[in-house]
Automatic annotation (TrEMBL):
Keywords: NADP, Oxidoreductase. It comes from the Bacteria. This is Enoyl reductase (ER) domain-containing protein. It comes from Cupriavidus malaysiensis. The keyword Oxidoreductase applies. InterPro entries: ADH-like_C (IPR013149), ADH-like_N (IPR013154), ER (IPR020843), GroES-like_sf (IPR011032), NAD(P)-bd_dom_sf (IPR036291). It holds the Pfam family ADH_zinc_N. The keyword Oxidoreductase applies. Residues 10-337 form the Enoyl reductase (ER) domain.
Length: 339
């Protein structure tokens, strides 16, 4: 089968379109014929090796949608032919955390497309429980567009205890995760201040639910304070990391929370300890998402309560171009590869 592999860490053009053996299912697995694969920041971080390193070669692709073509010995054979999309998080499925739908706390945590091969391929093998029925209302492109970003955003907002009427500052709002957070937080009735990378995306972010849009930069904490009458925000939705962390802390109100779900620009940042204790701040980490978050966002997407924004659809062979577009930082919405 054809697949795109990360064979060495490097720039987008190191992604290689290769011929590899078609995977066969293990006893608890299914093999899915991929029709569409979503491109995520995680794929780029895996490819450049800057934050995560995995054994190479690896086929990236946490989000994909397609149809089940083979089922392992322990899997109900009636699933063959089922339209599915990928649940992004790998977990044991039976520990106390998994049983509560909080798979992201499982000690067997992993991610499709990094722990195991993902969807930048004609076929992909995943545990049966990671192939989730795709509602009729969603086509394959849409099915590959939301699971990782929307479920992660939902998990982070839940971890950050965002409530209706509160204010939230959302970093990287023109990226996939930030955009999802804008939509979800707005649907919850929060006041959303979106941090964008370019004035070109202001209008789209307002349509997605942002009350105000502030350009990323060294003045953003001051601007956010001004927008909140000097008070600061109740929650900062942070996944950019080193480049923005100081500004994020500075933008928090008394009793403010910062939820951190990623570190795209690096893992080390100074923390103003005086601000932490005098303003009674909380820094909350959040890894991935759980099944309850995925179920929640699938329901919202299927009912069109939120509408993942799809910017561009490219063939699998143009995966490198898709990564370059994402890395340019000024895109809005998802890039989907069709297979
Ligand atoms: Zn578990």
């Amino acid at each position: 089968m054809q697949a795109v592999q990360i064979q060495q860490y490097g720039a987008a053009d190191t992604l290689a379109l290769v011929d590899v053996a078609t995977p066969a299912p293990g006893p608890d697995d299914v093999v899915v014929r991929v029709h569409a694969a979503g491109v995520n920041r995680l794929d780029v971080l895996l490819r450049d090796g800057s934050v995560f390193q995995v054994p190479l070669p690896r086929i990236p692709g946490t989000d994909f949608a397609g149809e089940i073509v083979e089922a392992g010995a322990n899997v109900d054979r009636r699933r063959i032919g089922e339209r599915v999309f990928a649940a992004p998080i790998l977990s044991c499925g039976h520990c106390e955390h998994c049983l509560r739908g909080e798979d992201n706390r499982c000690s067997h945590f992993g991610t499709v497309g990094s722990t195991i091969d993902g969807g930048y391929a004609q076929f992909v093998r995943v545990p049966s429980r990671n192939a989730v029925a795709l509602p009729e209302a969603l086509d394959y492109v849409r099915g590959a567009s939301f699971a990782l970003t929307y479920a992660t955003a939902a998990a982070m907002l839940r971890r950050g205890r965002l409530a209706a009427g509160e204010s939230v500052m959302i970093l990287g709002a023109n990226g996939g995760l930030g955009y999802a957070a804008v939509e979800l937080a707005s649907a919850m009735g929060a006041r959303v201040i979106a941090i964008g990378r370019s004035a070109d995306t202001d209008e789209a972010l307002r349509r997605a639910g942002a009350t105000a849009v502030v350009l990323a930069g060294p003045a953003m904490a001051d601007e956010v304070r001004e927008l909140t009458g000097g008070r600061g925000v109740d929650l900062v939705f942070e996944h950019v990391g080193a480049a923005t962390f100081e500004q994020s802390v500075a933008a928090l109100a008394m009793d403010g929370r910062l939820v951190l779900g990623g570190v795209t620009t690096g893992t080390m940042a100074p923390l103003d300890l005086k601000a932490v204790f005098t303003r009674r701040l909380e820094v909350l980490g959040c890894r991935g998402s759980g099944r309850r978050d995925l179920d929640h966002v699938l329901d919202l997407v299927a009912r069109e309560r939120v509408r993942p924004c799809i910017q561009q659809v490219l063939p699998l062979a143009q995966a490198a171009q898709a990564h370059r577009l994402l890395e340019s930082g000024v895109t809005l919405g998802k890039i989907i590869l069709t297979v």
